[in-house]
Amino acid sequence: MIFSFLLLGTLLSGLFAASVLLLEGYLEDQLIGSTIAQELDDYVMQLREDPSVVEPFYTRIQGYVTRPGDPNRSVSAQVRELDTGVHDVDLADGHFKVAVRKDEDLWAFLLYDVTDNRRLERQLFTALIGVVLLFSVLALAIGMWSSTRVMHPVTELAKRLEEAEETSPSPQLAQWFADDEVGQLAAALDAYAERMHHLVERDREFNADVSHELRTPLAVISGATELLLAQDDLPAKTRNRLLRIARAARQSTDITTALLHLVRAERGTDEGSESHSVADVAQDIIDLHRPLLDSKPLELRLEEEDRVSVIAPQSVIAVTVSNLVSNAIRYTPDGEVVVRVGSGRVAVEDTGPGIPEDEIRLVLDRHYRGEGATGSGSGLGLAIVKRLCELYGWRIHFENRVEGGLRAEIVFFGA
């Protein structure tokens, strides 16, 4: 708004000044030029009627008559060389507007001193420049004052919106503003905040209820599966199927527990967690996944460079690492998947095809699945991992390895 006022004021005053200068120059050329040209024609006409008419002499107009080839020292060579018409000429004693008429039998010159006119033009130009600058300053001051007055309610609205507590059902902004455009905007924001609050609360309650209610049937499934796996006479196929059920039950239990912690943390009611070894959790995950590789030519192993302990629920650590391991196994047809723990981080490296560089930024989006994905996944696993990492202040990123494959890394602390 300030820039608009400044630009408008400067342009308007500049156009006015330019118009004045152009109009002044145009009128001078038309009036003086036509006047001295008419005076010269009248004088030549009188001279032809009465050759005894002497050359006119005035304070600012000088007239001379000569013959072609007959030099008249009163007329400078610079003027004598001009063609018929009206010209602007700078002479030693000033600036002149010269009317010239060259007939076959005589040449006539009429000089009009416009030195004072040029001086006045320069003064006028300087004055107009000052006026333009003055109007620009005034436009800037008016713009600043107007923008402050106009934007104050909007600034106040933004300030109160920032100060509103996230957990409040509505910031109640409309009560602080008049019933104008800003007041209507504040009322709309109040209504929108109310709807969003209810949606978020319903989402949190749903996640909490589902996570809580699923824990019991999952515990029953896990217990029954462990009892069945304890039998020694199970066929190999049946044991593999039970292992898949146990793995799925374990993952589902970890996810529901992690979601429950997520909801509690968002509400500020989550209690402190104990410290857990990332390598121990990763080893359990590897042990769960290794029997499910079947005949796939893929090596799955853990490399612990140094001990990394994280203060977080074990289920949260398990969900984050398990998703990275599951994705590495799903996208790697052969080779190896290595889980490296050390330096305050955990990294999962595979020998698969990797991810196109322009798609790496999309892997954490909801419902995103790579082109080589198999199975019936929903693409929500990494989105949940992203939320958990944001909640606990961890950093997660993906990069293609130089030797081939993908490296997925979670930084718990450190550089």
Order of helices and strands: HEHEEEHHHEHEEHEEHEE
Spatial strand order of the main sheet: 6-8-9-11-10
Shape category: elongated
Beta-strand content estimate: 15-25%
Description of the molecule:
With 415 residues, the protein is α+β, with helices and mostly antiparallel strands. It folds into three domains: 2-137, Beta-Lactamase, CATH 3.30.450; 164-271, Helix Hairpins, CATH 1.10.287; 273-415, 2-Layer Sandwich (Heat Shock Protein 90). The chain has helices spanning 2-49, 77-80, 115-163, 181-229, 236-267, 278-289, 314-331, 381-392; strands spanning 61-66, 85-91, 94-102, 107-113, 275-277, 298-304, 309-311, 335-342, 345-350, 395-400, 406-411. The chain has a five-stranded mixed sheet, with helices on one face. The protein has a four-stranded antiparallel sheet with strand order 1-4-3-2. Strand 10 (395-400) and strand 11 form a beta hairpin. Helix 4 (181-229) runs antiparallel to helix 5 (236-267) and helix 7 (314-331) runs antiparallel to helix 8. It is elongated, with a radius of gyration of 46 Å. The mean pLDDT is 75.
